[in-house]
Amino acid sequence: MDFSVAICAHNASRTISAVLDAALLQNPVPNEVVVIDDGSTDSTAKIVSQFTNVRLITLPENVGIAVARNRAIEESKHDLIIFIDADAVVKPNCFEALLKHASNSDVAAISGRGEEFYRYDFSNRFRALHAPQSLSSEPIEDAPMFMGLCFAIRKGIAQKVGGFDPKFRTNGEDADMSFRIKKAGFKIYYEPTAVVEHLKFDGFFGIVFQRFRFGYWMMRALKKNRVPSGWFIKPATKNLVGNGINRLKRLKLKEAAMFFALYLAQISGMATGFFG
User: Fold this and answer.
1) Full-model pTM
2) pLDDT tens digits for range 7-47
3) Phi and psi at residue 37, in whole multiples of 5°?
4) Which of 19, 153, 199, 235 is 20 to 30 A (C-alpha) from 243?
């Protein structure tokens, strides 16, 4: 099956070379690789231009992830497009795992999952163990959404439901698109063996702020698509608060504090997103 690989990058000079190397070594080999440089001010475009088998499209200014994804969809030559983030290195057989579900015409998108690469300190190790970009360790035939850092999507269906919403500049574009795909009557398949290593390193405050942004943009997507907020709040409460109480009982105070901090950040983000 012919397919395109699309990577939207903004100031990704630290990771883009490793991401492209891994994508080009996949089996099957992509029929084309398109990089949308979203107004980077670092050497991202220069690094990408050194890959002779990669098509580079440079946007004059930073327009955000949703607009960049739409440009990638327009530019891609094939109906099936695999998106990977500019800091997500595909592990062996990732593309193969995604493509094996593409023959099902009811499936509009196939989601992979992320594993955090950095685990050298408490904060990043905590994120890797307790806040992964994953829906489950098992496949889900009709998943609620796809994960934005690694997914395959049908170009025709993405365009049919209106493309990615430009309002989602940094986060939430995956949830918003997922809700619209589901409303249109299509399925999303979650394939946990399609794995990327996420090359994201943050300190404590970076991880907490990331959770705030996640809550904010998720609420914007829920509100826009009239999806009950309990769809998201209930499992988050069970996970973060439940685990926090568990660690507190076991006197693992540092872990407990992290769970509660992430929960408060997420709820604050959701409240801001609801009233914003």
Assistant:
1) 0.94
2) 999 999 999 999 999 999 999 999 999 999 999 999 999 99
3) -85, 105
4) 199
